[in-house]
Amino acid sequence: MATTKIKDPVEGIIDLDRLPGVPAARVREVIDSMEMQRLRGIRQLGFSEWIYPGATHTRFAHSLGTFQGAQRTMRQLRAAGADIPDEWFVATALACLVHDLGHGPFSHTFEALAGRPHEEWTRRMIEEGPEIGERLEAVHPGTRGRVLQLLRNEVAEEGLAWLADLVSSSLDCDRMDYLRRDALYTGTHYGSFDRDWLIRAVLPSRDGRAILIDPKGTSAVEQYLIGRYHMFQNVYLHKTSRALETAFARLGERLRALGPGATPKSCPAFAVLHEDEITLSRYLALRDAHFLVELDRLAEHEDATVRALTRALRERRPPRAMTVYGEDPTALDEEMQRRREDARREGLDPPTAVWLDRAADVPYRPYAPQQGRKGLRVQDPGGGEPEDITHRSPTLRALARPVVVHRLYWITTEEG
C-alpha cells in the first residue's frame, strides 16, 4: 500500500489522506513533482549549519510541515464553526505546501543575486513549471487558480479572503512551522510555543477578510511573537551566519563584476549570475550542493578577492566584524575607511572586501490598513470593532519597535 502518512519530528504525523475529497495519490503526485523534490537540495537556514551543526533541515521538510499545520488549523476552525468549502480547504493546504517552491540555493541568500523575490519564482513555477501546475490542477479543476489567488492574497470568493492569512500573514502556517522546526534543529529552543493553543485562538473576521484572535489567546500570541523575536536575535541575524551569507553574496557580485570570462567553465552554477535573465529551467536546476562543489574550483582563482571570499566560505573562516546597534552606522565610517585601505594594500578590491551589513527586524508590525498591514487584531466579545493586539499587551507594544544592527565585515588574506 502506498504511503499516506509521513513521520516528522515536528508535526509527528503528516497526513496525505485527509484532504476532503482528494485521494492520497493525488497529494503524493504534487509532492513528487520535480519542483517540490528540488527543495530537498535547499537548506532551510542557508549557512546557519556552519554555526548550528544540526541545522541541516531542508525547505522540503518545512513545506510538508506547513501543509500539515494548515490542515490542523483548518480542521480546528471548522470544528469551531468556520465555513470552509472543501475546494478552498484543499487549495489552502496545497498553497501552504508549495509556498516556498521559489527559494534558490541557501534560501534567502541567493535572492538578491537572482534579481527576483522567491515569491515571484514560486508563482512562476506554478504558472509555467514543467509539472507542479498540472499536478495541482489534477487534484481538482480550478485548484491551480485558487492556489495562485491565495499566494497573491487576492482571493475572489466572497467571505474567504481570510484564508490567505493562513498562507502569509503575521500568524500564518509558514511561521508556525519554521519557528518550531528551526528551534528544534538549531537546538536553541527559543522558537518553542504552544501551537495547539494558538490555532484554537484563530478565527475569521465577521467580514471574512482577515483572521482575528480570540481574547483568550493573547498570551499564546505573546509567547509566539517573543519566540520569533529571540529566534531572529539568536539564529536568523546571528553575526557569523550573516557574515557567511553576505560573503557568499559578495563572491557572486565580484564574479559578476569581473565578467563571464572570470568564471571557470567548471562553475556552471556561478556562471548563471552572468545571464541577463535567469530562465526558469536554469533556476530549477540550481541546488546548494552545486555552489559548494564549485567553491573548491574557485579556491585557486587568479583574483585575490575571489580567493579570499572562497576561503572564508570553504574553510569556515568568517569575515571579521565590528558591530553598532541602531539606525545610525556612522560610527563605523572611520573603521570602514581604514579597513578598505588595508584591503587595497593586500591586493583586494576594497568595496567588495569590506562591506556594511544592515540586519533588521520588526518582531511585530501592528495593524495599519493604509500601509497594507493586517497585523493581529483581537475580536471584541461585545461585538465592537476588533483592535490591534498591542492595545491588550504592553509586551507586544515593546516588540513593535524595529531592532537594527549594523555590522562592518571585512576579509583579509592573512592566515588565522
Account of the protein in words:
With 416 residues, the protein is α+β, with helices and mostly antiparallel strands. Helix content is 47%, strand content 10%. Strands 3-4-7-8 form a 4-stranded mixed beta sheet. It has a 3-stranded antiparallel beta sheet with strand order 5-9-6. A two-stranded antiparallel ribbon has the order 1-2. α3 runs antiparallel to α4.
Number of strands: 9
Q: Please describe the biggest sheet, giving its number of strands, its sense, and whether it closes into a barrel.
A: 4 strands, mixed
Low-confidence stretches: none
Going by helix content, strand content and strand pairing, the class is alpha+beta
- Based on CA atoms alone, the radius of gyration comes out at 23 Å
Using the coordinates shown, work out and report the CATH topology of the largest domain.
Answer: Hypothetical protein af1432
How many helix segments? 20
CATH superfamily of the largest domain: Hypothetical protein af1432
Second CATH tier, the architecture of the largest domain: Orthogonal Bundle
SS strand fraction: 5-15%
Major sheet strand order: 3-4-7-8
**How helical, in percent, are the residues?**
40-55%
Task: Estimate nothing, just give the exact number of structural domains.
Answer: 2
Order of helices and strands: EEHHHHHHHHHHHEEHHHHHHEHHEEEHE
Shape: globular
| Mean pLDDT level | 95
End-to-end separation in angstroms reads: 56 Å
